């Protein structure tokens, strides 16, 4: 949204850097590159940093540590490429109002801060760039109205929110390539199912998560011992509070069967029925 807004305002003076953390949804990097380059004709510098991220995250399981590592590495890589562009004065970010609220402590104490979103306050001061955050006083529904004005495709405008740290915080425990691949497939099946059943736009945010628990199951005549997949789908106005979405039994059963039958590594599916509060939308 910010990229297209600036594209309209300054055209070829705009440079976008896309750092692929390897923690995006299935095929997402291809869609982003194609939208920016082919559809919007924006200058895009694409950086595939997947291996760097996985290496840095090795053996890390603490949620806030994951966030900090991802945020810091993201900025480091971003800086590496930003330096190559001459005479840059401004840096644009898509920070929204809820990001500011949730990342700043309401009482002023460090402990009451809920989660540290890496797009808020994480920039190195030495970059000396002026920050441009055109959406920072807007809620998501207002940003979507702007997207319609900007003629962006509905698929982009109404895409569910996705956290900066990506799949890393949908995989409690340690992160590795095998788990990322399993999770990408499960998430894709779930989201595709929502689209096929025309449920996607009734839901604020939905995703699959991979829990660091293995449970026993049976496949044919064999005993299996595989990961547990958690599905979350919520309704919300702004992401600040949320309720779980009530699926028909037939839908959730279809998705569960598809996941277990077609993805090696998962043999059980559970559905999260907690609201926010007391839970949060993400697991970490
Ligand atoms: P929670 O889990 O705090 O999520 O209820 C509220 C909304 O924020 C997203 N979220 C994040 N976004 N960096 C982000 O850019 C983060 O670290 C982060 N953590 C949560 C979450 O997906 C939901 O839409």
What CATH architecture of the largest domain do you see? 3-Layer(aba) Sandwich
Give the domain tally.
Answer: 2
**Overall form:** globular
Quaternary form: single chain
Helix proportion range: 25-40%
Number of strands: 8
For the termini, the CA-CA separation is 26 Å
Main sheet record: 4 strands, mixed
Low-confidence stretches: none
Give the CATH superfamily of the largest domain. Answer: HUPs
Structural class: alpha/beta
How much strand content do the residues show? 15-25%
In round numbers, the mean pLDDT is: 92
CATH topology of the largest domain: Rossmann fold
The succession of helices and strands, N to C, reads HEHEHHEHEHHHEEEHE
Listed once per kind, the bound small molecules are: xanthosine-5'-monophosphate
**Rg, please?**
20 Å
| Tally of helical segments | 9
What would your notes on this structure say?
This protein is an alpha/beta fold and 284 residues long. It has two domains: 2-161, HUPs (Rossmann fold, 3-Layer(aba) Sandwich), CATH 3.40.50.620; 171-271, GMP Synthetase, Chain A, domain 3. The chain is 36% helix and 19% strand. The chain contains nine helices and eight strands. Strands 5, 6, 7 and 8 form a four-stranded mixed sheet that branches. Strands 1-2 form a two-stranded parallel sheet. A two-stranded parallel ribbon has the order 3-4. It starts with a helix and ends in a 13-residue tail after the last strand. Xanthosine-5'-monophosphate binds next to loops. Residues 67, 102, 114-115, 117-119, 161, 163-165, 205, 239, 276, 280-282 line the site of xanthosine-5'-monophosphate (XMP).
């Amino acid at each position: 949204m910010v990229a297209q807004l600036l594209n309209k305002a300054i055209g070829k003076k705009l440079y976008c850097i896309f750092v692929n953390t390897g923690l995006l949804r299935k095929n997402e990097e291809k869609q982003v590159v194609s939208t920016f380059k082919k559809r919007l004709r924006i200058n895009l510098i694409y950086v595939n940093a997947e291996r760097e991220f996985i290496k840095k995250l090795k053996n890390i399981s603490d949620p806030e540590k994951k966030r900090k590592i991802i945020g810091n590495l993201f900025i480091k890589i971003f800086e590496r490429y930003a330096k190559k562009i001459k005479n840059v004065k401004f840096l644009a970010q898509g920070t929204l109002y809820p990001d500011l609220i949730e990342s700043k402590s309401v009482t002023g104490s460090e402990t009451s801060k809920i989660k540290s979103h890496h797009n808020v306050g994480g920039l190195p001061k030495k970059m000396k760039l002026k920050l441009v955050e055109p959406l920072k006083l807007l809620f998501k529904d207002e940003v979507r109205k702007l997207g319609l004005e900007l003629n962006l495709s509905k698929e982009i405008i109404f895409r569910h929110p996705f956290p900066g740290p990506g799949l890393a915080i949908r995989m409690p425990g340690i992160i590795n390539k095998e788990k990322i691949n399993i999770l990408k497939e499960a998430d894709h099946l779930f989201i595709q199912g929502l689209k096929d059943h025309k449920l996607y736009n009734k839901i604020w945010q939905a995703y699959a998560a991979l829990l660091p628990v293995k449970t026993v199951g049976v496949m044919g005549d064999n005993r299996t011992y595989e990961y547990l997949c958690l599905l979350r789908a919520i309704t919300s106005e702004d992401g600040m509070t949320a309720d779980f979405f009530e699926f028909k039994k037939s839908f959730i059963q279809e998705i569960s069967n598809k996941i277990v039958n077609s993805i090696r590594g998962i043999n059980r599916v559970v559905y999260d029925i907690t609201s926010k509060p007391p839970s949060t939308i993400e697991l970490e």
